[in-house]
Amino acid sequence: MALNARERQLARLSLVFVWLWAALVSVQQAHGMSTQLLQASDRIPPEAYPWLIYGGSAVDLALGLLMLIKPGRAVYLASLIMTLAMTVVGTWADPSLWLHPLGPLSKNLPILALLWIVARATT
Looking at CB atoms within 10 Å, which of 10, 45, 73, 78 has the fewest? Predict the structure, then answer.
């Protein structure tokens, strides 16, 4: 089943929101929830926190803006790869995140599916 133009636009804007919101909230919560999330893992040294928070936020911002301004298959596939990478790193850092009721890792599965669908529907 192919996506029509409206469905692709809705999917794209939904993904733009996810990336841009994650960038904003990560920085806004840099000394709050973002740091607490990293502190839950004994595998991540505290000196890496700023790099992970601000670096991750920069990647989120870049992907969200690219998806907004210059959408295309390459951007969707880059987002898919980054989502996979973040899921793997999150699983390594704190596997219990899979059991979190708000789904910080499990939500990545439908996002990955949507990215795959949109990438395939985009020329």
Answer: 45
Closest-CA residue to 82 (of 72, 92, 90, 70): 90
pTM of the model: 0.92
* Distances, alpha carbon 87 to alpha carbons 44, 46, 52, 104, in Å: 15, 20, 14, 9
Amino acid at 28: Q
Q: Tens digit of pLDDT for each residue in 14-42?
A: 999 999 999 999 999 999 999 999 999 99
Contacts of 67 (CB under 8 A, 6+ apart): 12, 15, 16, 19, 75, 76, 79
Could you tell me the residue ranges of all domains in the chain?
5-121
C-alpha–C-alpha distance, residues 91 and 63, integer Å: 22
Amino acid letter, residue 57? S
Looking at this protein, which amino acid is placed at residue 13? L
Match 């841009």 to its residue by tokens.
20
CA nearest to 18, candidates 73, 76, 74, 72: 76
